[in-house]
Amino acid sequence: MAWRKLALLVLGVIMLCSLAACGNKVDSKAVREYADEITEKMLLAYNEDNYEEYIANTNSQFKTVVSEDKMKEGNEMIRGKIGDYVPGSKKFKDAVKTSQKEQKYLVVRYNAKFTDESEDVLVTMIFDDNEAHQVGGIFFNSPKLREQSEK
Questions:
Q1: Which residue of 8, 49, 75, 85 pairs with 43 in a disulfide if CB–CB is 3.0 to 4.6 A?
Q2: pLDDT of 3-45, one tens digit each?
Q3: Among 82, 85, 96, which residue's Cα sits nearest to residue 125?
Q4: Which ranges carry the DUF3887 domain (predicted)?
Q5: pTM of the predicted model as reported, rounded to 2 decimal places
Q6: Hey, how many other C-beta atoms are within 10 angstroms of the C-beta on 1?
C-alpha cells in the first residue's frame, strides 16, 4: 500500500512539473514574499510532525484530504528515505502560473537539503493564485524517492 501511495506521489509531481513547464512565468520577487516563509514553516512542521502548523496556510481541499494521521503517515514514509529537512536550506528555483479546471494556481519550486539525501530534493509547492495564497499541495522529488517508487 505504501508503494502505491509513493508511486502516486511521484506521478503527481511529474504531472505538476509538466504543468509548470506549460505555465506562465511570474514576478518571482512578489511570489517569494509569501511563498518562502510559508514553505519554510511547512517544512519545519514536517520535521516536527506538527499538524496544526503544517496546515496553517493550506486551503480547505488540502485540509479535507490531509488529516493528521495521513500527514504523519506520509511524513514517516518520506523521512524513511530522505530524512529531515535541513532548516533554511531551501533555494528558490522557479515559479509559474497555471490553471486546471478553471482554478488558478502558482507552482513554486525549491531545491532543498534533507539529512539522508545526498542530492537536492525538489520541493514543489502549489499555491492558490488569489490574495489568500493558501497552499493546495506540497510534493517532494529526489533520487531516493524515485528509486523507491521504481522497485
A1: 85
A2: 455 444 444 545 554 444 455 778 899 999 999 999 999 999 9
A3: 96
A4: 41-131
A5: 0.82
A6: 6
Contacts of 75 (CB under 8 A, 6+ apart): 46, 49
pLDDT at 104 over 80: yes
Amino acid at 35: A
Domains of the chain (ranges, CATH numbers)? 2-150 (3.10.450.590)
| pLDDT > 70 in the chain, percent | 82
Give me the pLDDT at residue 147, please.
Answer: 85
Q: H-helix or E-strand containing 44?
A: helix 28-48
Q: In what order do the strands lie in the sheet with 135-141?
A: 24-25, 91-100, 103-114, 117-128, 135-141
